[in-house]
Design goal:
20 helices; alpha/beta
Amino acid sequence: MKKIFPLILLLFNVLIAQAAGLGPITVNTYLPGSFAVVSKGKVPSILVSANEWPGAIRAAQNLQNDIKKVSGLEPEFLTDKITSMPIIIGTIGNSKIIDEMIRNHSLNISEIAGKWEATLIQVIKNPIKGVDSALVIAGSDKRGTIYGIYELSAQIGVSPWYYWADVPVKKSNSLYVVAGRHVISSPAVKYRGIFLNDEAPALSEWSRKEFGGFNHKFYEKVFELILRLKGNYLWPAMWGSAFNDDDKLNPVLADEYGVVIGTSHHEPLTRAHDEWKRYKGGKWNYDQNPEQLRAFWESGLQRVADKEQIITVGMRGDGDEPMSTGTATALLERIVKDQREIIEKVTKKPAAQTPQLWALYKEVQDYYDKGMRVPDDVTLLLCDDNWGNIRKLPGLGEAPRKGGYGIYYHFDYVGGPRNYKWVNTNPIQKIWEQMRLAYEHDANQIWIVNVGDLKPMEFPIQFFLDYAWNPDAIPANKLMDYTTNWSANQFGNEHATAIASHIDTYLKYAGRIKPELLHANTYSLSNYNEFEQVTADFRKLKEQAKSTSNQLADNQKDAYYQLVLHPIEAVANLYEMYLAVAKNKLYAKQGRFSTNSLAVKVDSLFKRDAEISTYYNKTMAGGKWDHMMDQTHIGYTSWQQPDSNIIPKTTLINNTTTTLGVSLENSELHFTGKTKVAQGFTFSALANTSHTLEIFRTGAGEMKYDIKAPDFVMLSSKKGTLNDDQKIQISIDWNKAPKNTKTSEILVSGSDKSSITIPIKTENIIPTDLPANLFLPDKGYISMEATSYSRAVNSRPIFWKTIPNYGKTRGGVIATPVTSPIQQPGEGSPHLAYDIFVTETGNFTLNTFISPTIDFTGKDGLKFAVSVDGQAPIIVNISKDYTSDYAWGQSVANNIKIFKTPLAFNKTGKHTINYWMINPGVVLQKLVLDLGALKPSYLGPPESIKSTEN
């Protein structure tokens, strides 16, 4: 039984881990045929061949160190020296030992031979003379071997983030690799990497403090991280930096480690942007200065012609700006032609044998759309809109290109409508949805993501690279499993579920709007209690995350703060501050005594923001990451960041008298003195409505209040003395309430002789034949989350898929596969049905909340349709009104597109709203039917309740 349990546990872990493209192969208890990595105070030696790739030898030496970190015992590192039970590491064709095992048939490489970056890990008895048993890590190529080494490191307890996030090593005195052939198949995406960009002030200042700048000491840490994450590609930092010029060891060590180097979309032929300025280049204009530019590019390429590179071709304007107006396609094609001639001259081989890319970034895509072409072997690097929405994908049925297609994606950006650089705000649900489009459309040659300063993008970086390796291993319904497994890998199993929930919830909240865009008017203060609720949600999340922190071991807390707690604490504080600003502004207009205390609170929260950053920089991990939280994020007045954080303006008032005031929910109006409110509250028995009013005082004097209402009206408080603003919850006891429709009053009186009369209307009418599970009207709307559909009508091969926790509220729903043909809405075609109940007839507006997806087909726009009951579907184009910079900017800033469609309801009672698929790739988040009283809000109103069985 003792031997069965570890196997069962291993199988359970495989189910979780395979969702991340991995397969656990280690256990803590011996199983028949397993190989001891650590056992009884001993560790095996590590054996490589002298002719092995230097990068693989480096990784093997790191494994030696990793085993020592885990066990406290250092393995002997051997070169071509046989021992009885070694870990044998080698690359097919580059390792005498591996090649000998292949010749004597003790090693079967059929599953990896000739493959790109594939690995076999296997326990083999008597593989060669003198070896009794060996753990063999064999790679199909250099990186296949390296990935196998780092796979073992991760599985024995060394996180890829041991340096970059201070994740502690999991100690063990008993570790075994189980028997079997453990194959890491080739990745789905050939080149998978990151771009260090917009690196000032954080990464640049930190690297200067830690290493003296972006030199080889810095990049060795980056190279190792990329390889531990099974990436293989890097665009180095480039603002004021030049990878090949700053430190001559940079490209040498990149090639040795096994990392493919490229340059960004506007840096042709391996030349960094800064080098043109350094070497006093003239006009950055090929029409006017071709000789100097060609010489510049040629000399740059000569430095690294023997290194593994992907060469960027093409040209943008100086400083990552567009080319001059009127730039001719013929000139750009000539530039590429001349650049390829340089490549052939320098490399002394046909240009097609050197990997190249042409990035269709911003206006460059327009050149392509207007007919510009490059040779077929050049990879077309398609791009997102800098906000995570892919602009273009290969057309279905297009002839394949030899160079294929790739994607340039963003987790960080400098530009309009606003920089976002401070903290991670990239939900993996959104990444999954967009990169799934890329994968299904065969844009799989290169995936490169702009990660800014690298930190604090740790989690989405690993997801992006894991997903690039095997997208099919991480379906939408396994995204939470992925997050849980990632959390377990960093912090252990005990708290993994809670930590995953913290990460997922934070990214939901922070992904609604970038913190740099957040301000006092983002969320509604008066409508639907929205700003209060989202801030309370953040506050609750912060307390939960802190509670988890308190349960962790001391050596885990720095990593936890970096990866989990810091962004939650920092953004929660920002929400608290802007909520206080919003209240201060409104309360000043209303003359509330609490106005001034809110100004003080804003000041305190602004200072708290600085304290949080200072703790990250100066205290956490002993100050190791000083400068990583230098990024400004408060006080934007345009797209560009302020030089320093600027405290929001607040108002102070000086009231000399104390009076009672009343405000009502969903309104900024307030009432004092002897007042009869014109429009009060309506309560519906159908939806069991409740409402809220707030009472306050205008001065420092004592104020007592008294509230009188009919006996069927239930109040959370009827009388008392105001020490602070107080919300009064109002609901109805429907067993006591008069039948049908009745008008009554609530009277609020104060010790200042004020009396404020609020009319209320009760509608105690519930149909006896009301079906169950219908969305019910209340407060002038019916709100339905996309995931709460009554029925999903599929039409093979098209099915509806829910992406849990996607988008701004509960989740998203999308038709799959995303390569499906365009559908004609109608009988039997794919649609979602939402059953509702209305108590009035008329034309009502349906608000459809759609993700800000761009028309990646480049045709006449992406479309959906809506209808009510059997009426003809009304087609809506989500692209045609979003072609201007302003409209696009609004859609990405708000992270939503809302479409208003009038629908006719000719009778009361049950109806069905239908949402029809037309184009694939459109993601539905929410539907809100405006019955005449829908109020403005950022998220839309909360979901309406459903009817139950009578």
